[in-house]
């Protein structure tokens, strides 16, 4: 066991709940640590239900292509906790992470605090101590009471598409969830808003008016679209004719557009067009329609098969992934098969309905890395309610072996999906963790 993992186990025992949205505990700890959240580099805060990780990845790629040193905070991780903290382009190393965990544990002195709060405090210590030009700070859950929202004066905010997820903590409808996401908005800080459900946009606009945050809204102040195999971005400052992003899927056009809009919203983020173009080609975001072309798992499938990985886990995420699969099928038709594992906190029926009429079969698998996982039987039942043929398996490897045995003359296109936890297990099993 890594030393950092031992700290994480102890942190988990500090609070009876894994999630308890509040700012009081982290504000207390940060104050006792000397206020590192006030000494971090210029910060861009990114909230939303879907697309916030991809938008963050686009921002990082574009800023780094312009020569800037960029810190990134994101969650959850796929294989190792270290993926959550990127210091000037590299994941935090074990020695620095463990030393910082030791420091926050000592200062916290056993008092109640959630795992996300104490590890966010550790990340902020690291960000404050390592020089950089920009910090990209991805919100963990919600926004208003998320531990990242201790940042007082970000240089820009971004809210990616809001949809139904985490209703237990954020509210039962789109408007309530958007109200919580909009809690990151700050007076005079420009806020880029991706395309939203009308109810979500109304909630965001009300909060922006209340705090005095200028909004830059998709479809009103900027737009990104595909034209003749190019990404066309347009706002009040003009039009950019850009290459399509490296990340697969039509929804990535909007995510890339949000990143470009953010770069043009804040003077401190001004980025040459050449760096934006380069970033679109270099961007990398594991487990978001990621093609697994090598490793242990593709070898389990027949020659000519395709193996894809996506951590989508809510209905809107399912629709985006299904749309991408449909696009791939238009270009090159192959039988589509899903390997699915999901958490019991997610709308499995809503997620799987997106694939009705598209996927030929679903294989339900367990997720060993989460105690909140649905059983393979439950996944199969949800798939059958969505009108999909389904059967259960004991592992990803078993599912791929069955797919191989059942394959016809045309090799299949296989997607492992339903959870970022499952995606992490797939990357670990494949021997290709994020690097």
UniProtKB/TrEMBL annotation:
It is an enzyme of class 6 (ligase). InterPro entries: Folylpolyglutamate_synth, Folylpolyglutamate_synth_CS, Mur-like_cat_sf, Mur_ligase_C, Mur_ligase_C_dom_sf, Mur_ligase_cen. Residues 46-262 form the Mur ligase central domain. Keywords: ATP-binding, Folate biosynthesis, Ligase, Magnesium, Metal-binding, Nucleotide-binding. Residues 306-419 form the Mur ligase C-terminal domain. Pathway: Cofactor biosynthesis; tetrahydrofolylpolyglutamate biosynthesis; Cofactor biosynthesis; tetrahydrofolate biosynthesis; 7,8-dihydrofolate from 2-amino-4-hydroxy-6-hydroxymethyl-7,8-dihydropteridine diphosphate and 4-aminobenzoate: step 2/2. It catalyses: 7,8-dihydropteroate + L-glutamate + ATP = 7,8-dihydrofolate + ADP + phosphate + H(+); (6R)-5,10-methylenetetrahydrofolyl-(gamma-L-Glu)(n) + L-glutamate + ATP = (6R)-5,10-methylenetetrahydrofolyl-(gamma-L-Glu)(n+1) + ADP + phosphate + H(+); (6S)-5,6,7,8-tetrahydrofolyl-(gamma-L-Glu)(n) + L-glutamate + ATP = (6S)-5,6,7,8-tetrahydrofolyl-(gamma-L-Glu)(n+1) + ADP + phosphate + H(+); 10-formyltetrahydrofolyl-(gamma-L-Glu)(n) + L-glutamate + ATP = 10-formyltetrahydrofolyl-(gamma-L-Glu)(n+1) + ADP + phosphate + H(+). Transmembrane segments: none annotated. Pfam families: Mur_ligase_C (PF02875), Mur_ligase_M (PF08245). Its EC number is 6.3.2.12, 6.3.2.17. Functions in two distinct reactions of the de novo folate biosynthetic pathway. Catalyzes the addition of a glutamate residue to dihydropteroate (7,8-dihydropteroate or H2Pte) to form dihydrofolate (7,8-dihydrofolate monoglutamate or H2Pte-Glu). Also catalyzes successive additions of L-glutamate to tetrahydrofolate or 10-formyltetrahydrofolate or 5,10-methylenetetrahydrofolate, leading to folylpolyglutamate derivatives. Belongs to the folylpolyglutamate synthase family. This is Dihydrofolate synthase/folylpolyglutamate synthase. It comes from Chelatococcus sambhunathii.
């Amino acid at each position: 066991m890594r030393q950092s993992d031992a700290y994480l186990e102890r942190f988990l025992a500090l609070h009876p709940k894994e999630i308890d949205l509040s700012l009081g505990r982290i504000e207390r700890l940060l104050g006792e640590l000397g206020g590192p959240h006030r000494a971090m580099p210029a910060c861009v805060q990114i909230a939303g239900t879907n697309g916030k990780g991809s938008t963050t990845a686009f921002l990082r790629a574009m800023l780094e292509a312009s020569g800037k040193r960029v810190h990134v905070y994101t969650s959850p991780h796929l294989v190792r906790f270290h993926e959550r903290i990127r210091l000037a382009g590299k994941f935090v190393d074990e020695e620095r992470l463990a030393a910082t965990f030791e420091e926050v544990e000592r200062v916290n002195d056993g008092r109640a605090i959630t795992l996300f709060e104490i590890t966010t405090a550790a990340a902020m210590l690291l960000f404050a101590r390592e020089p950089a030009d920009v910090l990209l700070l991805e919100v963990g859950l919600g926004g208003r009471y998320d531990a990242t929202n201790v940042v007082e004066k970000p240089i820009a905010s971004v809210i990616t598409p809001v949809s139904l997820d985490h209703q237990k903590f954020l509210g039962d409808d789109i408007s309530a969830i958007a109200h919580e996401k909009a809690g990151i908005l700050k007076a005079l800080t420009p806020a880029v808003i991706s395309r939203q459900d009308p109810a979500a946009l109304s909630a965001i606009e009300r909060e922006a008016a209340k705090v005095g945050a200028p909004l830059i809204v998709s479809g009103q102040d900027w737009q990104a679209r595909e034209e003749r195999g190019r990404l066309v971005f347009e706002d009040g400052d003009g039009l950019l004719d850009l290459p399509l992003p490296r990340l697969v899927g039509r929804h990535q056009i909007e995510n890339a557009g949000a990143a470009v809009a953010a770069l043009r919203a804040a003077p401190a983020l001004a980025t040459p067009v050449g760096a934006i173009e380069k970033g679109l080609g270099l961007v990398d975001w594991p487990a978001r329609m990621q093609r697994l072309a090598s490793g242990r798992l593709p070898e389990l499938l027949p020659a000519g098969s395709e193996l894809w990985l996506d951590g989508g886990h809510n209905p809107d995420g399912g629709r985006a992934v299904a749309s991408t699969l449909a696009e791939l099928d238009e270009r090159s038709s192959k039988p589509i098969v899903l390997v699915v594992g999901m958490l019991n906190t997610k709308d499995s029926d809503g997620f799987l309905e997106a694939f009705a009429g598209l996927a030929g079969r679903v294989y339900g698998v367990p997720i060993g890395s989460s105690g909140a996982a649905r059983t393979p039987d439950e996944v199969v039942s949800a798939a059958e309610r969505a009108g999909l043929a389904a059967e259960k398996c004991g592992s990803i490897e078993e599912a791929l072996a069955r797919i191989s045995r059942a394959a016809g003359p045309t090799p299949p296109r296989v997607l492992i999906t339903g959870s970022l936890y499952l995606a992490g297990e797939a990357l670990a099993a494949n021997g290709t963790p994020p690097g």
